[in-house]
Design goal:
The complex is a heterodimer of chains A (311) and B (430).
Chain A lengths: L4 E2 L15 E3 L2 E3 L1 H28 L2 E2 L7 E2 L3 H8 L1 H33 L5 H9 L6 H11 L6 H8 L14 H27 L2 H9 L4 H29 L3 H6 L11 H11 L3 H30 L1
Antiparallel strand pairs in A: 1-3, 2-3, 4-5
Chain B lengths: L1 H24 L3 E7 L3 H17 L3 E7 L5 H10 L6 E5 H9 L7 H6 L9 H6 L1 E2 L2 E2 L2 E7 L1 E5 H6 L11 H11 L1 E3 L2 E7 L6 H13 L19 H14 L11 H6 L3 E6 L4 H5 L6 E4 L11 E9 L5 H16 L1 H7 L7 H5 L10 H8 L6 E2 L19 H10 L5 H19 L2
Parallel strand pairs in B: 1-2, 1-3, 9-10, 12-13
Antiparallel strand pairs in B: 3-12, 4-5, 6-12, 7-10, 7-11, 8-9
Helix pairs in contact in B: 2-14, 9-10, 17-18
């Protein structure tokens, strides 16, 4: 902002042609900067800020789109805190998050370490592991429905071939959340592997070499040098994956529609069915706000614990 | 000189042409018709609409097909922006909500003016198309549930296919005879159900209704489902199919595919499956009316029909009414080549009805199931939430799926269901 608001006495900072064309509260203002950020700010306000504010308003109404909203005050909020289904979907969502986040981080890290070592087939591994991310989640979900089908799915045929019992991956209350988590990890691992690989390649080799010279073994190097230096990236991945897991929807909707018995229904699938199947938009807005606040809390935690590391 | 005047001549020709064509267009009213029918259903229904266009010079129908999940949202958005379609094809739950929101018309007077013969409709179908005393839907077809039986399995089990099951005892006998097990687990279901979702919930609903359950009171203010022990008996019967009689496996996920592949022997379903199964190589099946397991025959019936959206121009409403009447009067094409069972007595009495479209030997059971059936969707703004045809987070599914899985007691499931339904009624009755 200093470059934008300048004292009229000093004149220029930077090139001679960049003097403000008008004054605001006695200071020269560089209108060009505002002109450049203007279009983006307009879009940002229209597409992001305004809908959020509108959503907050809708949360205080009873609205089904095809008629005018009716003000109901805090009724939707009270309903959210007394709706037993909200507790169930949050439990499901948190369970998926607790499986997906560590699973994705650990698998991505292991694969990144493998590829970084340039061991045999590392290029092939990198390509094949990243490939799922190039496929839309809708296609991924439909393919995995076939793979996980109890009677004729490939996975169960493999298990049967090994003499193991077939598992009802998507129709069992016990297995449905692990199945969805497994698919989500499979889909997301490639992208995170690339990010971690970049982080690994940023670690100065001299540091590792000198550690080895000092007598450190590979395990000590990993825990004392590699992991600490990857901490900011790991923090970023954990935050992003947590937010993504909280918002999980496509694979749930397509693979299980929230079943069996609602055991795989997530908060976003509930928002979807409330808003777009029951047209209860006020209540859907409340649920969306709760989700927004939860992701905000996670982001705050991330900045609290990892923010300094970024600097 | 001609060269210089060519641009002027062209301009005049274009101007006259556009004015003339506008004048011509003004004589023809183009109606917007939105529906969700795809695949073979869509082809047949669109052919019916094309027939309408071919036989009318003053009214044209422009139809749009949208995915089933998207249609209600698109219509809601269209209504909100003041550009709704003229005619919609949908089920009562959505139409009731649109009527409640002021988007669709009550049709009593409109269709009387269009000279639609209401006496030709099956009385129950008109009653189900009525909300708060007003007819809001012109019913086009009914999809009742009936029983499909794999003939090869029945013959293999030594059953007489000329004497299909008609009551609980014979149904159990047939199911047990056709069930295959391995190490105590059902590998081929005699009665095809899934571990959760639509299949067990529909059977539960049919049985509850057969034993006399009523979901809500006539004034739509109170849930009356547990006034008798019918729902509990029905739930127990479904659970026994899995655990006590072992005629069904919980591990089936895709019931349609499973019946087609011979993983299940008997299957309660609707007439929309007939086209697909008739064309499934190697599948020999027959259809029978539901055996009576409860006190009286009933079956779950879905009604679908036409509604007219409010328009500012009364000419459009009049044209829409004329189009709806024509489509209803010509619905024989739809219910013979497409899906569903007719709700017009004249179609049922038509000598050609049995000889047209899908072979009568498959359609007969469904046709005979409409009378005595109950409408799955209650005419209520979110009547779909009272539907037994439920999966995902629909109330019946939320409450009863854990019961079928054995992780919740029947009493707890029913209590949760009743509580959920009452909450919905209270919200809309404020």
């Amino acid at each position: 902002m200093d470059a934008i608001l300048r004292s009229g006495k000093d004149g220029n900072i930077g090139s001679p042609g960049r003097q403000g064309k008008f004054r605001y509260k006695g200071k020269l203002v560089d209108w060009a900067a505002y002109a450049f950020i203007g279009p983006y700010m307009l879009l940002f306000i229209t597409m992001k800020v305004a809908p959020i504010l509108f959503g907050i308003y809708v949360s205080f109404t009873d609205w089904s789109i095809s008629r005018a909203p009716r003000w109901v005050g805090l009724e939707n909020y009270l309903r959210a805190f007394t709706d037993p289904w909200v507790a169930q979907v949050w439990l499901n969502t948190m369970t998926i998050t607790l499986l997906v986040v560590p699973g994705t981080v650990v698998v991505s890290l292991l694969l990144a370490l493998y590829v970084n070592r340039k061991w045999r087939f590392s290029n092939l591994v990198r390509t094949f592991v990243f490939a799922p991310k190039a496929v839309a989640i809708t296609v991924t979900a439909m393919i995995w429905v076939w793979i996980l089908e109890k009677e004729s799915g490939i996975l169960n045929m493999l298990l049967a071939g090994l003499g193991l019992p077939k598992i009802a991956w998507l129709t069992s209350i016990t297995w449905v959340i692990p199945s969805i988590s497994m698919v989500t990890i499979w889909w997301g691992v490639g992208y995170n592997m690339i990010i971690l690989l970049a982080g690994l390649q940023d670690i100065p080799q001299a540091l590792i070499d000198s550690a080895h010279l000092d007598g450190a073994n590979d395990r000590q190097v990993f825990f004392r040098i590699t992991l600490p230096m990857l901490r900011p990236i790991l923090g970023l991945i954990i935050t992003l994956e947590t937010i993504a897991a909280l918002r999980i929807f496509g694979q749930v909707q397509l693979m299980t529609a929230g079943g069996p018995g609602g055991r795989s229904a997530t908060i976003v699938s509930y928002i979807y069915s409330t808003g777009f199947q029951r047209f209860d938009l006020g209540y859907a807005a409340v649920l969306s706000l709760l989700l927004f606040l939860t992701t905000l809390v996670f982001s705050w935690i991330r900045f609290k614990f990892y923010g300094d590391q970024d600097n | 000189m001609l060269k210089r005047n060519v641009p002027w001549i062209l301009m005049i020709v274009l101007l006259v042409g556009s004015v003339w064509s506008q004048g011509s267009t003004n004589d023809v009213i183009t109606l917007q018709f939105w529906h969700h029918l795809t695949a073979s259903d869509g082809e047949v229904f669109n052919a019916l609409l094309d027939n309408f266009n071919a036989t009318h010079t003053n009214i044209k129908i422009e139809y749009r097909t949208m995915p089933d999940e998207e249609l209600p949202t698109k219509i809601a958005a269209a209504v909100a922006t003041g550009n709704p379609p003229d005619i919609g094809f949908r089920m009562m739950a959505d139409i009731t909500r649109w009527y409640n929101d002021g988007a669709v018309l009550a049709l009593d007077d409109v269709m009387k003016t269009a000279s639609l013969n209401l006496k030709d409709f099956l009385p129950d179908s008109l009653a189900t198309s009525t909300y708060k005393g007003k007819m809001i839907m012109v019913p086009m077809d009914a999809s009742p549930h009936a029983l499909l039986i794999n003939v090869a399995h029945a013959k293999e089990a030594g059953l007489d296919i000329t004497k299909p099951p008609t009551d609980a005892a014979s149904l159990l006998k047939w199911a047990m005879a056709m069930t295959k097990t391995s190490n105590g687990k059902v590998t081929r279901s005699g009665l095809l159900l899934t571990g959760s979702g639509v299949a067990p919930n529909v059977l539960f609903g049919i049985l509850a209704q057969e034993w006399g359950a009523q979901r809500i009171s006539e004034d739509q203010k109170t849930v009356t489902f547990l006034k008798t022990n019918a729902p509990k008996r029905a739930a127990q019967w479904v659970l026994d199919a899995f655990d006590k009689n072992k005629i069904s496996s919980r591990d089936v996920s895709d019931r349609y595919k499973s019946f087609g592949q011979g993983v299940g022997s008997m299957f309660f379903t609707g007439p929309w499956t007939l086209n697909g199964y008739i064309n499934t190589a190697g599948l020999d099946f027959m259809t029978v009316k539901n055996p009576i397991i409860g006190d009286k025959f009933t079956t779950l019936v879905d009604l679908a029909g036409l509604c007219i959206f409010k328009q500012a121009d009364p000419k459009r409403t009049k044209a829409a009414a004329e189009a709806v009447k024509w489509l209803s009067d010509n619905s024989m094409f739809w219910v013979t080549k497409g899906r569903g069972i007719p709700l017009r007595q004249s179609v049922l009495d038509n000598a050609e009805y049995k000889n047209t479209g899908i072979p009568w030997k498959y359609r007969e059971a469904f046709s005979n199931s409409v009378k005595g059936g109950f409408s799955d969707e209650i005419p209520f703004p979110i009547g779909g939430d009272f539907s037994y045809y439920a999966s995902g987070d629909a109330p019946v599914s939320k409450a009863m799926d854990p019961v079928w899985a054995g992780t919740r007691s029947i009493d707890d499931g029913l209590a949760m269901l009743v509580q959920d339904w009452q909450r919905i009624l209270d919200r809309y009755n404020k």
